[in-house]
Amino acid sequence: MLKRLGPSVVDAKDATTPVLFDSKLEFNPPAHGVWNIVHVGMLVPEAHQIYVCAINCMRGVVLTAAEMGESERFSCVVLKESDIVRGTVEQVTIEGIADVLRKLDARGTLPPCVIVFPVCTHHFLGVSMARVYRELRSEFPGVDFVEAWMDPIMKRRLSPDVRLRKAMYDPLEPCEADDALVALVGSDFALDTDCDLRSVLATGGYRLVDAQGCSTYAEYKGLAAAGTFVSVYPNAVYGASKLAKRLGRRHLYLPASFDYGEIADECDELRAILRLPTVDYVNQISRCEEALAVARTRIGDAPIAIDASLHPRPLGLARLLLEHGFRVEEVYLDGVSGEEIAALDWLREHAPHVQLSSIVLPELRVSPREREVKTLALGQKAAWFCGTPYFVNLVEGGGLWGYAGIRSLAQLMCEAWTTPKDTRDLIPRKGLGCASCF
């Protein structure tokens, strides 16, 4: 029976949580700056990624590695229909991975770490991945095998992205803790050099380390020495908490926020844990107010659209801008996380007619993308949907955090408003901030 599904746009006052729209056929807008699991896996220095799947599923991951110029760190084991029919998928998986590693070993380039990505087929056929890893570790005892997955259709499980951000830290081994060392875990981007989190640590003589600052696998494994693990990105929380528990360390989740009070609370929490004196944030807030006032003067009453690829807190950002006189008209997102409920409640009361629009529903493929007035987009997908060259080219928070992050974003908004970008050229590029051959 045919079923009429709901709209692809709702006013904030009518929004439901956590899912905003009916599930149906999905559309993928051609804005690809966000990272996929290949990009994330490349953060492990000297690691080699091996994907085991059918050739039709291999195209995207192969292209990602090639576009990054990292094909030497990437291999495939192709599963065929005959492997499924004959029941040989498990053995093909073992022999395929082993063959890749034997060839690398023969060339003198056996990697210290291999990230293996089995797929949905391995679930469906009941492949014993425990046996796969047992045999591989027996033949290659000097290699750390990271047990990842590429199985996005397994909706009831943690996403491949979340599980990878846990698995990539599994090789870190128990060691003596260095209490002066704090490790940032699970983020795609290093935090900006002037961000408040770094500033708090610096005042107490603490040092922040992360995967982005490691050039060798040995340095990467040295992250295990941190006395405290910090995560700021939602998809990193699961892995960071598991890592901290396994190594007997502290874990702090300090999400990037646009709320002055929440930022102060997070800084105070960090100071308390590290036994640092509390401070007054009046000056920091005053500087944010000045930066936002400058941006408001330059941008004026121009319409603004925000999308969820820019930052994990798009509704919080909408609230901040609306409170400071900006004309936010649209926010592109498909669901509301628990962290954003308060921001949505504020929008319901104070900006009930701000439109919340889906990113993935198919009718958006043919929705009008010409705007009569100059529009500022915050995020690549908002730029594509609005057809505007005036956009902030940032994904997944981009390393912004705290009061300094708010000031940096205000400056980026001013620059985006005065300097148009080549939207058609920029947003199809995969993995913003990663090496690319384009």
Summarize, please.
The chain has 438 residues and is α/β, with parallel strands linked by helices.
Describe the structure in your own words.
It is a single chain. With 438 residues, this protein is α/β, with parallel strands linked by helices. It contains 17 helices and 14 strands. The chain folds into 3 domains: 45-167, Rossmann fold (3-Layer(aba) Sandwich), CATH 3.40.50; 178-273, 3-Layer(aba) Sandwich (Rossmann fold); 282-426, Rossmann fold (3-Layer(aba) Sandwich), CATH 3.40.50. A 6-stranded mixed beta sheet has the order 1-12-11-10-13-14, with helices on both faces. Helix 14 links the parallel strand 11 and strand 12. The longest helix has 18 residues, at 89-106.
Q: Report the C-alpha radius of gyration, rounded.
A: 23 Å
Content of β-strand: 5-15%
Distance between termini?
47 Å
Order of strands across the main sheet: 1-12-11-10-13-14
Number of domains: 3
Given the helix and strand composition, which structural class is it? alpha/beta
If you consult CATH, what is the topology of the largest domain?
A: Rossmann fold
Q: Uncertain spans, ≥5 residues at pLDDT below 50?
A: none
Pick out its properties.
alpha/beta; 438 residues; 39% helix; Rossmann fold; 3 domains; 14 strands; single chain; 17 helices; six-stranded mixed beta sheet; four-stranded parallel beta sheet
Strand-helix topology:
Blueprint (H helix, E strand, L loop, with lengths): L8 E3 L25 H5 L5 E7 L1 H13 L6 E5 L2 H6 L2 H18 L6 E5 L2 H5 L4 H11 L4 E4 L12 H8 L10 E7 L11 H8 L3 E4 L6 H5 L4 E6 L5 H11 L2 E4 L6 H14 L8 H18 L3 E5 L6 H10 L3 E6 L8 H10 L4 E3 L18 E3 L1 H7 L4 E2 L9 H17 L4 H4 L12
Parallel strand pairs: 2-3, 2-4, 4-5, 6-7, 6-8, 8-9, 10-11, 10-13, 11-12, 13-14
Antiparallel strand pairs: 1-12
